[in-house]
Amino acid sequence: MSRILVVDDHEDNVELLRARLEARGYDVDCAMDGQEALDKVRATPPDLILLDVMMPRIDGIEVTRQIKGDSSLPFIPIIMQTALETTEDKVEGLDAGADDYITKPINFAELEARVKSLLRIKELQDELARANEALLKASQTDGLTGLDNRRHIEERLCEMYVHATRLNEPLGCVMCDVDHFKSVNDTYGHQAGDAVLRQVAEILKDSAREIDRVGRYGGEEFIVLLPNANIDDARAFAERVRQAVEAREFTYDGGSLRRTLSAGAAAWPHPEIRHQEGLVKAADDALYEAKQHGRNRVEVFDGE
To answer: How many whole angstroms separate alpha carbon 24 and alpha carbon 117?
Structure first.
């Protein structure tokens, strides 16, 4: 059921419009002035607004400007209702962002037609917004694991590094890699390998805080960005993940297997980390050391 907000400072007009619209099956809410309308729109955005122009406190033109200028709100069609007949008044309302207008006294057959038309447009706009959101998410997400893909995690790294250096807050980074992953694909098949990667991704997500970002960096390699986390925090996180992977029995269609994980931890500030790429390289160098020292372990970047 479409929800319509009627805004008018004359109670008789409000009740008449409410009765007519509810008789057509719409859910109707009302506001008696512009400020009340803005409060209601921000709390629960309606599907359409029927808005009087001449009101105390904040008039309909200003209400329209504020609603249409608020990027946090979805598309909300606005029909302005006015007793003003001049072209200039109608143009001002449309310039403010109104989608249509109707003059008083209101012809209810005309109003119903305009409402139906704008609600159809609203439905199409909402479908388009959902499709665009899905496309954006797909462009940022690794299809196998559901984690951030490499491009998106690098964008987030840039934002986090700038934030950390500006506020002089630590930023941790962990790179981790499934040990002997190629043998999983060679021995058990690619479906088993995919299952292992998905389950490692679950462990990483479950271990991370709400503010952390977890991404698949490529192949069997993962990256975790840890805002406001120093090197001890990054090491502790990596060790928790390592232990969880070691304890996990990875299941796939037809069986189960075990694997371990190696990880490298680094954190800014560090005298040898001078840019965001340097932070990732430091964690990657530590990961290399973990591999060189026997795997299934965590190493920390020390700059040597």
So the answer is: 14
Same domain, 176 and 54: no
Give the angle subtended at the CA of 24 by the CAs of 21 and 26, to the nearest 5°: 60
Residue 77 lies in a domain: yes
Rounded distance between C-alpha atoms, residue 154 and residue 180, angstroms? 26
pLDDT, tens only, 211-230 = 999 999 989 999 999 999 99
> Does the annotation count 220 as an active-site position?
yes
Q: How many C-beta atoms surround the C-beta of residue 268 within 10 A?
A: 23
Catalytic residue among 36, 220, 289, 299: 220
pLDDT in tens, 276-303: 999 999 999 999 999 999 999 999 998 6
- Note whether 213 and 148 are within 8 A (CB): yes
Tally of domains in the chain: 2
pTM (predicted TM-score): 0.70
Residue 145 within a domain: no
